Amino acid sequence: MKRPHAMNRRAYLAAAATVGTGALAGCFGSATGSNSGGSEQETYLEPPDSQVDPEDLPYPGHGQMLPDVTLPAPLHGEEVSVRQFETDVFVTFFYSYCQTVCPRLVGALRNLQAEAGADGYGDDVTFLAVTFDPERDTESRLREYAGHMNVDTEAGNWYFLRPDSVSRAKTVVSDEFGVAFQRTEPEDMDMYMFNHFSLTALANAGNYVEKAYTTKRPAWQEIYGAFETLREREG
Questions:
Q1: Ranked by mean pLDDT, which of 8-17, 41-50, 146-155 comes out on top?
Q2: DSSP characters over 158-224
Q3: Beta strands in 43-167 (DSSP E)
Q4: Residues 6+ apart with CB under 8 A from 143
Q5: How many Å apart are CA 176 and CA 116, to the nearest integer?
């Protein structure tokens, strides 16, 4: 099969991830691949021990820039660009009605936020949680979810981002970030869920990804250790 152009790579690979029994491994199995071959002059942490060509992965990994996308942040009443922050950035993807993987992903970021604040790093890091269910994850729902998850949305470093339509969610989450998701089709469509890939990415202040975690059970203490090392090396 002919290799897709670079600009279409993530959309192509994310779509391919939904084919076959191994689809959406981040939800139902441990996806352990990480991006290698990053640009050493743009990153501070060592690349992962992997022989995987970064061009063969759907998501941005070590040495690749976060996608240049802008999304509404409904709890703040503003538009937020993923690349606008002059801080390190954590980003993950979720939907609030998820009962399995998403609470772990958002919970890991919440713990990272609390630890960073306690260690005096609160102004040096930003947390972005992007929903791929804009139909149900309204402003009021996200506010309720923040309270349920004990997320501090008043700290000035946490943003829930909500694409303004289902098609925009696919474009941003699946095509730009390479995080595949697929809505289920239950008899009662009010109860639909999503099968989805899991991604938690840590990018430096220059928007280059240092770590890409694709496990459905992120160990936030390990991730925080990588963040501390990054802060030390960035100076």
A1: 146-155
A2: EEEE--SSHHHHIIIIIIIT---EEE---SSGGG--EEE---EEEE-TTSBEEEEE--SS--HHHHH
A3: 70-73, 78-81, 88-94, 125-131, 158-161
A4: 75, 153
A5: 28
